[in-house]
Amino acid sequence: MAEEQRDLISDRGSGVVNVGATQRSALGRRAAFSTLSILVALLIAGQAVTIYFIYQQSGQISKLTKTSQTLQLEALQRKLPSSAKPVNKMKMSIVDTPMAMRVLPLAPSAADMDMAPPASNKTEDQVKHLLLQGDPRKVFPELKDNLMGNLKSLKKTLTDADWKAFESWMHKWLLFEMAKKPRLEDRKEVPAVKVQTKCQVEANAREAQLGQFRPQCDENGDYLPLQCHAATGYCWCSYKNGTRIEGTATRGKLECPDD
Fold it and tell me: Coil, strand or helix: which one is 252?
C-alpha cells in the first residue's frame, strides 16, 4: 500500500514538472515572436522616415536648381545691351528651356551686324570693327597710359583665365620677334664697296688699250698737276678735276704748280 502511494506521488510530481516546462516553452516562443515583431516594426518605420527625408531633400534640390537657373538667366539679361533685350521672350518658362540654350549667349541680331563703319583706316579701328561684328557686346578699355600702366589697367579688367591666355599670347609674340632679329655675332660683315673717282675710272678703263692716254691720279683719286701722254711725248698741266690748262702742252721739261 505504501509503495502504491509513493508511485502515485511520483507520477503527480512528474506531471507537474512536464506542465511547467511546457508553459515556459510557450512563454519563450511568445517572447521571441514579440521581439521579432518589434524589430520588423522598427525597420518599417525607419524605411518610411528615410523615404520621407529623401522626398524632402529632392524637393529642396529642385527648388535650388530652379533658383540657380533663374539667377543665370538674370545675369545673362544684365549682360545684354538694352536694345537687344526682348520684352516677352525673356519671360519664358525656365523648365521648358533646355540647359544648353540657357547657358549659350544669344546670337547677334541683324540690327547689331549693320553697325557704323570703322572710325578711321587705322589698324586698331579696323580690328575693333571686325571684333564688334562678331560680338557686339565686346567692350574695349581706354588705355591712354604708358606700356606698363596700360598692362596694369588691362589686368584689372580681365578675368584670371583671360589674363593667363593674354600672357601666353605675349610670350609667343615675344618669341616671334626674337626669331626675326638675328644675333649680332651671326651677322656677316659686308665689305664696303669703294667708289672710284673719275680719274681712277679713266685710268683703269684705258689700262688694256695701247696708245691711249691714261691719266695719273694721286692718293685721293684726283688728277695730278702734271699729265703726260706716253705715246706722243707731250705733257701739260691739269687741274684736280682733269681740266687741261691751255698753253701748257709741250714735249720739253715742264713744271706744274701743285695747286
Answer: coil
- The model's pTM is 0.28
What type of residue is 232? Answer: T
Number of alpha carbons in the 13 Å side-chain half-sphere of residue 72: 15
What digits encode the pLDDT tens for the residues 187-222?
666 677 778 888 888 888 755 567 788 888 998 889
Q: Name the amino acid, one letter, at 169.
A: W
DSSP letters for 178-202: HHHS--GGGSPPPPPPPPP-HHHHH
∠ CA 222-223-226, nearest 5°, is 145
pLDDT digits (tens, 9 = 90+) for 55-109: 777 777 777 787 888 888 887 777 776 555 554 544 444 445 554 444 444 544 5
- Residue 243 CA to residue 251 CA, distance in Å, equals 19
User: Cα(242)–Cα(187) distance, rounded to whole angstroms?
Assistant: 41
SS3 49: helix
Side chain identity, residue 24: R
The residue to which cell 533685350 is assigned: 85
Neighbours of 67 (CB within 10 A): 11
For residues 104 and 236, what is the distance between their CA atoms, to the nearest angstrom? Answer: 97
- The CA distances from residue 122 to 119, 127, 129, 137, in Å, are 8, 9, 11, 22
CB neighbours of 221 closer than 8 A, spacing ≥ 6? 196, 197, 198, 199, 200
Give yes or no for a contact between 169 and 151, defined as CB atoms under 8 angstroms apart. Answer: no
Residue 209's φ and ψ, nearest 5 degrees, are: -100, 115
Closest CA to 111 of 90, 92, 86, 91: 86
